[in-house]
Amino acid sequence: MSQTPQDLLQQLRIERSDRDLPAPRRRWPWLVAALVMLAALVAGALVWRATRAPLVQVATVQAPASAAGSGSVLQATGYVTARRAATVSAQITGRLTEVHVEEGEHVQAGQLLARLDDSQAKAQLALARANEAAARAALGQYQANATLARITLRRERTLVERGLAPEQTLDQAQASAASAAAVLASARDQIAVAAAQRQAAQVNYDYTFVRAPFAGVITDKAAQVGEIVSPLSAGGSFTRTGVATIVDMNSLEVDVDVNESYIHRVHAGQPAEAVLDAYPDWRIPARVIAIVPTANKAKATVKVRVALLQKNPRILPDMGVRVNFLERAAAPSAVPQGVLIPAAALIDVAAGKAAWRVRDGRVARVPVRVLASFGDLRQVTGALAAGEHVVIKPGAYLRAGMTVRVANPAQE
User: CA dist 60 to 237, 268, 376, Å?
Assistant: First the structure.
């Protein structure tokens, strides 16, 4: 059927009921905004809580040495040191052409560690040897001349005695013989000089070889091939003064600083125990070597040398160590009691003493009983274990279960 223009216009007309219907609303942007605001509030609450947590200093609980049953009289801290340690360098200035060692390598006395450029030293040695050979070769001629002069002198003396030659010829023969003898002596001296020069050149050549002065372990490799090394720091940072550092591990001992107020408790030959900070459960029998007869006026301490009676590859130079000086040698079965904590970590409570333990960022009050005092440390028993952390100089604001922030996070 054909439609009129009026029918077509009627079809395009929008009814009022359809025009007034509301458009569908999009709700998901509001949900996203609400979630973002909620996350921001939670993060802000966590930051506020963290900043509101009190800041505390902590110390590590230490295991004591076997003092029980052995009569401990004093504890002191120090470091492992090596009595035989050397930074090996060349005795002349030169460029490294070879380096034969690495850190951790064991070397023997006299072992070749490195070599310097020896072209100049080798040439000087060859020249010195040639001069010595030439001096020795010329000696034969001077010996022949001296022999001929002596024969001529005897002949002329005989002729003069028989009246067959004038006195003048005898004088000439005597002068020639004396001159030949002097030249021969000078030739022998020249040989001695040439030999000494050859020896000096040999020494300079040997200086191009850097060798280990004693058996030990390489702890530091200070130079590489191509660098200039010198016994003197002649070129600033461009010149190395050492090739490698060797430590004799059999010479390791302990140096501790003892407060001068307690030095009367220590004497040479006294038994002791050493505990390395790296291995707190390992007791190393030790003995006092000597008390160094001088005091440090700045620290009011006296240095004490302590020998380690057990050798072990785990003992390394510069390790921290705690030494327990004993009245008598500790029995092998002696079991240490309690733990060691700083005196500043103790607080007074109704039942005696207590300490605040930090675990997972929260504090808990732990009752303890003090057994002994060792300087700034206290040996205590209680629910504390070696390796845990306690609060130093705790404030009265601490409460059990309170969240705290650790000022020295390396301890946590």
Answer: 41, 31, 14
CA distance 368 to 379: 10
- CA distances to 280, 329, 379, 410 from 356, rounded to whole Å, are 22, 35, 16, 18
Read off the DSSP letter of residue 333: T
Q: Are strands 405-406 and 55-60 parallel, antiparallel or unpaired?
A: parallel
pLDDT in tens, the chain (412 residues): 455 656 655 655 555 555 554 555 555 666 777 777 877 776 666 555 555 678 888 888 887 755 444 556 788 899 999 999 999 988 888 899 999 999 989 999 999 999 999 999 999 999 999 998 988 888 878 888 888 888 887 887 887 777 777 878 877 878 888 888 888 888 888 889 999 999 999 999 999 999 999 999 999 998 889 888 888 765 555 678 889 999 999 999 999 999 998 899 899 999 999 999 888 878 899 999 999 999 988 989 999 999 999 888 889 999 999 998 987 655 544 556 788 889 899 998 888 899 999 988 889 999 999 887 776 788 888 888 888 899 998 888 888 888 888 876 545 4
- Asked whether 312 and 58 are in contact (CB, 8 A), the reply is no
Nearest to 239 by CA among 251, 226, 252: 226
Write out the two tokens for 274: 């050493």
| pTM passes above 0.90 | no
Distances (CA, A) of 258 to 64, 119, 288, 298: 18, 55, 12, 13
- Round to whole Å and give the CA distance between 87 and 118: 22
Query: How many C-beta atoms surround the C-beta of residue 388 within 10 A?
Result: 18
C-alpha distances out from residue 18 to 11, 24, 202, 390, Å: 14, 14, 115, 77
Q: Which residues contact 158 (CB under 8 A, 6 or more apart)?
A: none
- Within 25-172, strands assigned E span 55-60, 72-82, 85-88, 94-99, 106-107, 112-116
Cα diameter, the chain: 183
